[in-house]
Write a structure and sequence with these properties.
The protein has 173 residues and is an alpha+beta fold. Helix content is 27%, strand content 30%. The longest helix has 23 residues. The chain is globular.
Length: 173
């Protein structure tokens, strides 16, 4: 069985000069962003510096309610959004998954970017242009599926919820 943690941490973009609290997801003690990076860079030339930021970010803390709903499978889109683009707009780019609640488990499957795993690298690039650019979709099949103990999953979500409430209470004091 896989394990999960939801952690409120600062996202820091030194280049743009800002920081904001986000909700990061850790699966088996590995940040989901790092797991995605391993998949997206496999077989591709790494052009960025080793410590360069990756184009994903956890949900911003002010979007807590949306994140909470997504983690419970109450989604806006056909699949649940796990990570967004660093611009925080999921239609720009994101990582999505199918979340299924069983009696004793919660399963995340088919994790991928709807754009980078598709026929074009972006919703703003049509298929003809993508072919001209020799676009090759990224294969996300090695990212999951992940199966969590339902009680552990819900406890991790509740722990993060309590932390969110505590931080908001402290911020308002």
């Amino acid at each position: 069985m896989d394990t999960i943690k939801f952690v409120i941490e600062d996202y820091i973009d030194a280049e743009a000069g800002f920081r904001c609290p986000v909700i990061n997801i850790y699966i088996n003690d590995h940040n989901l962003i790092d797991l995605v990076r391993q998949i997206e860079t496999r077989g591709r030339v790494q052009e960025q510096e080793e410590n360069a930021r990756w184009p994903y970010i956890g949900f911003e803390k002010p979007n807590f309610r949306r994140f909470y709903d997504e983690m419970l499978g109450m989604k806006i889109y056909p699949r649940s959004v796990l990570l967004t683009c660093t611009c925080t707009y999921e239609l720009c780019n994101c990582i999505m998954a199918d979340i299924v609640f069983g009696a004793d488990t919660v399963t995340w499957s088919d994790l991928k970017s709807p754009w980078l795993g598709g026929k074009t690298p972006s919703p703003w690039v049509d298929e003809d242009d993508a072919q001209e650019l020799e676009w090759q979709p990224i294969d996300y099949s090695r990212l999951g599926p992940f199966s969590f103990d339902r009680a552990q999953y819900l406890a991790a979500l509740e722990k993060m919820t309590q932390e969110w409430h505590l931080q908001n209470k402290d911020a308002g004091a």
